[in-house]
């Protein structure tokens, strides 16, 4: 999710994977780059489900407003 021009493709692929991708997205929510955390939250929102919801709740406490809005 932090690979510049390829982030949109990565996001689409993760959404296609669905709930199977959620454990890996947890790492992206801990990235130093706020844009990466924002994209991770957006993907989790598209995937949905209980596991994604737990991570989105945690992302709502992020220090960056973009991440909070995405969550």
What's the arrangement of secondary structure elements?
Elements: H1 7-17, H2 22-28, H3 34-47, H4 50-59, H5 65-70
Helix pairs in contact: 1-3, 2-3, 3-4
Descriptive overview:
By secondary structure, the chain is mainly α. Helices cover 68% and strands 0% of the residues. It has five helices and no strands. It has helices at residues 7-17, 22-28, 34-47, 50-59, 65-70. Helix 1 packs parallel to helix 3 (34-47) and helix 2 packs antiparallel against helix 3 (34-47). The radius of gyration is 11 Å and the shape is globular. It starts with 6 loop residues before the first helix and ends with a helix. The model has no long low-confidence stretch (mean pLDDT 91).
Helix proportion of residues, in percent?
55-70%
Task: Give the C-alpha Rg.
Answer: 11 Å
- Tally of extended strands? 0
User: What overall geometry do the principal axes of the alpha carbons give?
Assistant: globular
In N-to-C order, the SSE pattern is HHHHH
Q: What is the residue-averaged pLDDT?
A: 91
In DSSP terms (H or I, runs of 4 or more residues), the helix count works out at 5
Q: Uncertain regions: pLDDT < 50 for 5+ in a row?
A: none
What is the first-to-last residue Cα distance? Answer: 16 Å
Supply the helix-strand structural class: mainly alpha
Beta-strand percent range: under 5%
Q: Sheet bearing the most strands, described?
A: none
